[in-house]
């Protein structure tokens, strides 16, 4: 909300002066993104993404994503890949891999169907029930493959150099699923309150933004049916500061 203390005069019967005092005129609010801290929001898929740069094998990475209501990422279109390439994932935490490139576990597996002269096979989505997704091109293979292995796990290679990423350069690898690697989790957008708590569908909450006096209902990751409290300025205080996360809480700055 915007503070606007305004005195207006109008003349009533008998030339009496009536004073109208307008306090905290409500303004339109732009809500911040619908992802927890550390996650990146992409409007095109209404999803949140996070790279975990500590190294885990594929199966451990699956469990880590599941613990935060996510799964290893699959992709629906080139635009989504462009979004992933545009992010500065390497700045978020200590990296497990080399500085010039990263490889992330993602939610695909490569199934070998023929071992005659080359490793022929096809990509599959790792989780049944995933929505319509884009399947990667023919992969590069990482470390020498065991003849016993018929299923390999997908890694998406990302370059840390911005010029390379701007040109869309990336690669797909089929790797031994027990190798350790960084990984990319993806989850549906959600409601996040002003104190960065996750809010369940249908519950009231105060969205992240500039107004701690809003109360909204969470619906499909969006704040809806919002109502606002209007606060009077603190009495007997000329200069004051509003608490950015507590409704109608002020600190007086007068001497």
TrEMBL record:
Residues 44-186 form the C-type lectin domain. SUPFAM superfamilies: C-type lectin-like (SSF56436). One of its GO terms (cellular component) is membrane. Coiled coil: none annotated. It comes from the Eukaryota. Pfam families: Lectin_C. This is IDD protein. It comes from Cardinalis cardinalis (Northern cardinal). The lineage of its organism: Eukaryota, Metazoa, Chordata, Craniata, Vertebrata.
